[in-house]
Every structure is written in structure tokens, then in C-alpha cells.
Amino acid sequence: MPPADPAVPLRVVAVTYSPGDTLEGFVRSLATATTRPTEVVLADNGSTDGAPEAAAAAHPHVRLLRTGGNVGYGPAVNAGMAGVTEGYALVANPDVRFEPGSVDELLAAAERWPRAATLGPAIRTPEGQLYPSARDLPRLSTGIGHAALGWAWPGNPWTARYRREREAPRERPAGWLSGSCLLVDVAAFRSVGGFDPGYFMYFEDVDLAERLGRRGWLHVYVPSAVVVHEGGHATGREPHRMARVHHTSALRYLSHQHPGRRNAPLRGALRAGLGARMLVSYVSGRVAAGAPFQRRAEGVGRAARVPGAAKLARPGRAVRGGAAR
Predict the structure, then answer these.
(1) CB environment 88-124: b (16+ within 10 A), e (fewer)
(2) Can you give the pTM of this predicted structure?
């Protein structure tokens, strides 16, 4: 893809559901994340706290798009992408804060990886941990081991293989990237129909990556770009419902990977196993939380820059690193 015109605003889509004060931090941090102008679309799924309306009134480049109800994350992103047919767009949760230059780092990496359909930053928690946002696609064996043992034995080989947390952060392809912050090649995104609306929440990013990967697209982790993600702002209000949605989405994804009559017994076993885990998660906070993160957010930001990255960027593109951690 040719380099993006720096004068054309970058579409930024955030799905809101009563995001509270985090939304203002999202919008303000975006101003230092890129030298390009931005147009922010808040795809609102029925907020009642007034935060999306306040952000749209306070910032001329922010637009409120009402989806008509709580339609889910993927469908809301699809709606927020309307009207964009080429170039790149940024999809991010409203409780993300961008470190300076982070979006420009993603755009520079996109030029280094012309077959990348999605590019994702290093995601740091407010406590300084590194969220494992660049993972392998979940295979049956790793998925079962991770789901069954990750909460009690986070260093188990299945979780380690799936999350790849033992690797030092480096720019590399991944099986899938967290949908909490993604730079998306719009043409690639549209070639597979965007997010599958059958996923209300969770696994829509895994499913998107798998479908794009089948068409030869890549997903690239860019730890020289850093964002801070508070996490759980909306999902924490209804933990049991979100646990049910998470397990239902996992079942949908794995069932799609094993279709047909011959795999019916396997799908039945998956349904039973995930159902049992869901019930246990209702009464055990440890199971519900899953495997704790295993790495501090060190070696990301400027420390993770690709040597010569500034030289690789095309003329007219500013390349700035996120803060070192």
C-alpha cells in the first residue's frame, strides 16, 4: 500500500458504553500520539453517563455515532468504519491512553510490513505489567491447557506457548493481536467483511485475524509503540454476564474451527468443558481472572525500536517513539 497522505485525517473508532472519565484521557492522549490529524468516531452502544456527548461537544474532531443499542463490540466497530474505504484506521478501547508518538510508530511499521492487515502496540497496565497482546492462534491443545491450568499455574507450557510471554518484546508477526488497540488496513478489513457480528464481545479479534490470515495477511506486533490500558471498565459492571459471553464466544470460535458431522462429539465436549469452566468462574475470582501476566513492561517503547526504523520511513512521515519503560 502506498504511504498514507499525512493531510488526510486518520479515522479512529472507539466503542463506548458509559466510559466515564477515561474517555477524556483517551482523546487528549491521542493528540500527542500522531502528527496526523484525526477524526474520532465514538460508536456508542447506549451510554447513560453523558461522557460521549461531552467529548463530542468539547472536541471538534470527535463525532458521536449512536448504534441504536448495545449491539456488541464488533458490530459497533463495523458501524464506526463506515465511509472509510482505503488507507488505515485505528480501532481502540476508550480506556486506552496513548503514549507520545505511539500511533506514528504503528504507521511507520505498516510501511515496513506491507502485508500487515493489523498492527498492534505494546499494551501496558497501569501497574506496569505487559499485557500479552500478541499471541498465537489458539489451537485445541493449547486452548484446553491454557483454560484449564492458566489460572492456577500461569507458567504452564500451554499458556506459555499460546501467550509467548517468555519472549523479549520485539517487532514480529503474531497469530492475532488484541482488539483493544489496532491499526487496521481498511482494504484488508473490508475484504473479509470486517468483524463477525456473531461475536457480541471477545474472540472477535481472534476470528478476524484467523480469517485474514487465511488470505495471506499478517498481524504485526510493534512494541516500539506503547499504550496504557486500564481494562475492565465496562465488563467489570456485569462480571457474570461477561464470563458467560466470553465462554460462549470461545465456543463459537473453536466450533467454527472444527465443523462438520464428524466433529460433532468434539464440539459437544467443548461445550461441556467450557460450560463447566464458566460455572466455576462464577464462584472463583481466580478462575474468572485467568492467568496472571508474567512480564513487566520493560524493553518496550524506544528500547524496542527497529534499528534504522527512521530511515525506513518514507519522506514526510514523522517517526517518534513511545516512552521507554
Answers:
(1) bbbbbbbbbbbbbbbbbbbbbbbbbbeebbbbbbbbb
(2) 0.91
At residue 217, φ and ψ (nearest 5 deg) are -80, 155
Helical H runs in 61-193? 73-80, 102-112, 140-149, 157-163, 186-191
* Cα 215 → chain centroid: 20
- What is the DSSP track for 91-116? EE-TTEEEPTTHHHHHHHHHHH-TTE
In the three-class reduction of DSSP (H, G, I as helix; E, B as strand; rest coil), residue 212 is classed as helix
Q: Which residues contact 175 (CB under 8 A, 6 or more apart)?
A: 135, 136, 137, 209, 213, 219
**What SS3 class is residue 78?**
helix
Domain extent listing, the chain: 10-236+293-312
* Spatial contact of 100 and 320, defined as CB atoms under 8 Å apart: yes
Q: Is 223 left (phi over 0), alpha (psi -120 to 50) or beta?
A: alpha
DSSP-assigned letters across all residues of 263-298 = GHHHHHHHHHHHHHHHHHHHH-HHHHH-SPP--BS-
Task: Give the Å distances, CA to CA, from 51 to 19, 21, 29.
Answer: 7, 7, 16
C-alpha cell at 270: 467443548
The Cα 247–Cα 250 span in angstroms is 5
| Region 10-236+293-312: CATH code | 3.90.550.10
Ramachandran angles phi, psi of 12, nearest 5°: -120, 120
pLDDT in tens, 243-270: 999 999 999 999 999 999 999 999 999 9
Q: What is the pLDDT of residues 292-311, one digit of tens each?
A: 999 999 999 988 887 755 44
Amino acid, single-letter form, for residue 133? S
How far apart CA 230 and CA 19 sit, in angstroms, is: 11
